[in-house]
Here is the input.
Amino acid sequence: MVAQPVQKVFPLTLKITNLPSSNSSRPWRIPVRIDCYLSHIKMAGLSFDNFQRNQYIASKGVAMPKATSTGTTIVGCKFNGGVVIAADTRATAGPIVADKNCEKLHKLSPKIWCAGAGTAADTEMVTQLIGSNLELHSLYTNREPRVIASLTLLKQHLFKYQGHIGAYLIVAGVDPTGAHLFSIHAHGSTDVGPYQTLGSGSLAAMSVMETQWKENMTKEECIKLCADAIEAGIWNDLGSGSNVDVCVMEVGKDAQLLRNYITPNIREQKAKSYKFKKGTTAILRESIYNLVDVEETEIPVPMEVDA
Amino acid sequence: MNGVSVDINHLKKGEVNLGTSIMAVTFKDGVILGADSRTTTGAYIANRVTDKLTQVYDKIWCCRSGSAADTQAITDIVRSYLTYQVGSDNFERPASVNVAASIFQELCYNNKDNLTAGIICAGYDEEKQQGEVYSIPIGGSIHKQDFAIAGSGSGFIYGYCNENFRKNMTRDETVNFIRKSLGQAIKWDGSSGGVIRMIVLTKAGIERLIFYPEETYLVPKEFEIPQAA
Amino acid sequence: MSNTIASEYGHTDTSVPIEHRFNPYSDNGGTILGIAGEDFAVLAGDTRHTSGYSINSRFQPKIMDLGDDLVMSANGFSADGDALIRSFQQQLTWYHFNNQNKKLRPSSAARLIQHLLYGHRFFPYYVHTIIAGLDEEGKGAIYSFDPVGSYEREQCRAGGAAASLIMPFLDNQVNFKNQYDPATGQARLKTYLKLDEVLNLVRDAFTSATERHIEVGDCLQIKIITKEGVREEFYPLKRD
Here is the structure.
């Protein structure tokens, strides 16, 4: 059965006051129909209201807006007594770099972190949602959240959406049962292993993992390996770039996020200064509105009294 | 889709695939499940040490082939169903292989339009004191067999398996039969590879086996090193 | 990539018949930039060669010295670009044979390139072409072409992957668009830029494009044409 939205109509007008009436040619009264918004709020989950409209628009040959896809390199690796995850910091929209220093390491719980590749918005939102549910679950059970629990919540959520939520994740963390490392694909399948790589730079990163990885590494060796794997992605994959973020989760300790652990791509100084002389930008027209009345009142300051 | 012919070629774009060689064989003391360990996305091997043998109850396991996401979701449901419902302490007797396979079949049949899953459900039936194998191919039919093979690599070993399977083999004979069969499937099928994993289910318990390439299953006979007496 | 899934029926795998059409074009990224000065011209380009998310080469210079104090670059699908430049060079050789090694003027080179491009009107060279040289008066000349031969002499032009990022910068810094003289309030007067100023602009244009376009980087090649001849400079760019 489909839940019917409650139909309530509130014809509402927003009146912006204190504007000069001389500008009466401008429609300062903005009518806002909020009925449609209200019905959405009542429904749980994602809204598909624009689906039909967008399909129609698409059929007319108008391109749909592209979501920011994190052409990414993310990795994870276990060591003796903990686990490390790492990511590059480039976000792309097509061939354009949308963000040179974005954060791809997300917190699910204080000691469970998650690296995300795929659609930026999806990795961010799915991580926040599961992070919230994990905290509620931990409050309800009065136990520290477990990595396997976050894995199950994530995979069941992603499977439900049949791959339409484009989140590719490496989940890692420590809990009362030890250190764990998993990867999840957008369709909801999961993998287990001592090291994982995901994203467009995963092949470059995996080549490092497959050649350098060894059993029983120390924390330092593991961080170095993860950073090297990310660097392989940064240099050799166009979808990845800028800096390396690392998160270390050690059994019995707080997780530590090493933001910009390596910054091998600092921009050199520009050859020229581009400061414009004041007045370079022409003022074509000027109009000033008094939105509020400012009143100045003098308040007498009390004299200082010696104690 | 008309409901009669099933479109099995609609794996969603970028979906992780278990291009697979799997089998399960009954023998004198119970049943042995075997699988390769390769998971692919297109031409890339996403996981070379996958465990496609999944436990759903004490001595009821399954081999998964098709979409990784679909088969994991199904086995998760069946496991929870067997653990907390029909196989729980509230019921008189533990879950049987037949019941487990039937649940698999029900899920695969009812959701056939949305699933790409080929499953072999096998286990040791404590009541009947014997191993049982059920094959549940895409579409959701169910077939009780003495042994079953499935996955993209199985096409290469129908003849070999038919020639070499015997009822009531010993444990070692069966392990060898599976090792050689899957060895051939892996050899000829590009989507299968990695190690061979096995699960031996008998009255005595559960035993895990692993066979590595070159060392234990890919060595041609003429290059085999003679064992010292 | 195969559109077939591996299923239990591995041996009976069938795929939906899909119409396959060979796509003869690809995009090898990269960006080029030409600026004309009063008595010089520069043509610059990065040396990264890509396909998809992969780097084919970090050093594949694409600004070619044609002789006769002319330089040329055809950016886009690099195989087409190479083919275009080679056929131009061949035509130039014939021109020298037939005309006692007479020097080809940039304006004539431009008209020749127009005909080479338009000759492929219905199967175009997938390139944005720019040539640089000095005209009869010794003034810097830049000619830029669309894939089928429409061309124009310009003061400056960016082509290729990051053209849309660089062109507005050039409009502002070379032709002083949207700049006003604070003293008079009138649009800032056009003046010729000196060579070192132009070189600085080119370097900043490419370091900035490298920051924001994934297909630009590795190394910057600049060819400078003056009455002394053609000179070349290289600068490193970021490699991520």
